[in-house]
Design goal:
Helix content is 26%, strand content 27%. It has a 5-stranded parallel beta sheet, covered by helices on one side. The chain has a 4-stranded parallel beta sheet with strand order 13-12-11-17.
């Protein structure tokens, strides 16, 4: 009997899941990918877009292109999820599946910090990265402040990469001596989940470029009129240009479905990404996977990709009875752009106990060009 797999979300996890399923399941089985957006945006390249090295067309692809592969692409807002019956509603239209994969990511919630929603630029979205790109040419002097608004955010390396790329942009434009750059982080240190060695390495990279780093600064208020940040520890900071990563939470439709736990994220089996509902999986940023050191697995595309391949393989096995069980082992890596055409590369085992074992390769041109190649290969392979 032919079966239907519903894949919710057209980000990295959703795209990889749908394409892998389509490649490995006989044609009679139905693969349905549902997303509210028209295009997939390759998020790692937003860092390049914000400094003008990419355009939106360079780093995005129409999701409808997946229909050429035999995937049914449905565009619309998901208004309800019934995990017990693997049923979703999209703009009043109902879909039911034999298997359901939830890859809806995390929503930005700048509104929870008074004043943040109306101030500065969030480079983690296409619109925010474009607005920052457009603002940079006119910014020639003053205080450039980057900020993580909460301890948990998407892509642990991103704010540190952004700081270094913006510092390089100031040098490229000949205004570095007139610009003071500071990074305020809600967390105790850079990329703490990757272990103390990795954290110290990234901090050294930041500070070696003359970027002032202020950890454990949890913002409580943003005053656009006076261009001032207020922090929970009583400190304040003034800015002329603000770049920020807002707080995040699981999408409302996921929370309304009763899928989130006390952590606010979907609980899954850490090796198979199964939820407590039979035939229902969750992958990527929408999940919360606790690690031994007390922090959750980072929310990053590399993990969504790996989890997607595991889930797709196990669904294929459930449908066809063929193949071996697949397991997500917690391994992952990422490039860390440092400016000047260079990047570092961190890779390791995030499931290692008592702490993740992650090694950082020093910045060099080879890793930067590795990221350039990765961008091009990824978009070509999956679209």
């Amino acid at each position: 009997m032919n079966q239907t797999v519903l894949v919710l979300g057209g980000g990295v996890g959703g795209v990889v899941t749908a394409v892998e399923l389509r490649k490995k399941l006989p044609g009679g089985h139905r693969i349905v990918l549902i997303d509210r957006e028209e295009r997939h945006v390759f998020a790692p390249s937003l860092l390049w877009l914000m400094t003008g090295a990419r355009t939106a067309a360079n780093i995005s692809r129409p999701l409808d292109r997946l229909s050429r592969r035999g995937i049914e692409v449905v565009r619309g807002a998901i208004t309800s999820i019934d995990p017990a019956n693997r049923r979703v509603e999209v703009n009043g239209r109902a879909f039911e599946g034999d298997h359901l994969v939830i890859s809806l990511g995390a929503d930005f919630t700048p509104e929870v910090i008074p004043g943040l929603a109306d101030t500065g630029h969030n480079f983690c979205t296409l619109e925010g990265a474009e607005s920052l790109r457009d603002a940079l040419p006119a910014f020639r002097s003053g205080r450039l402040v980057l900020m993580t608004a909460a301890p948990a955010y998407k892509c642990p390396a991103a704010p540190y990469e952004a700081a270094m790329l913006l510092e390089h942009d100031c040098r490229r434009r000949g205004v570095r001596e007139q610009v003071a750059i500071a990074l305020y982080a809600a967390e105790p240190g850079p990329m703490g989940v990757a272990g103390p060695d990795m954290s110290a390495s990234v901090r050294q990279m930041i500070e070696s470029k003359g970027i002032a780093y202020h950890p454990e600064h949890q913002v409580t208020k943003v005053d656009a009129a006076s261009r001032r940040l207020t922090f929970a520890n009583g400190a304040t900071a003034e800015f002329d240009l603000l770049v920020h990563v807002p707080p995040i939470r699981a999408p409302q439709v996921v929370r309304d479905a009763g899928l989130t736990a006390e952590s606010g994220w979907v609980t899954v089996a850490r090796h198979t990404m199964e939820t407590s509902f039979q035939g229902v999986y969750a992958i990527g940023d929408v999940t919360g996977i606790p690690l031994k050191l007390g922090k959750p697995l980072p929310k990053a595309g590399v993990f969504a990709h790996a989890e997607a391949e595991v889930v797709a393989a196990n669904i294929v096995r459930a449908v066809t009875g063929k193949g071996k069980p697949a397991r997500f082992d917690g391994h992952g890596g990422c490039f860390v752009e440092t400016g000047d055409g260079k990047a570092g590369f961190g890779k390791g085992d995030f499931y290692a106990e008592p702490v993740p074992v992650v090694r950082m390769r020093p910045p060099g041109r080879r890793w930067h060009w590795g990221k350039v190649a990765f961008e091009k290969v990824w978009l070509r392979q999956w679209f």
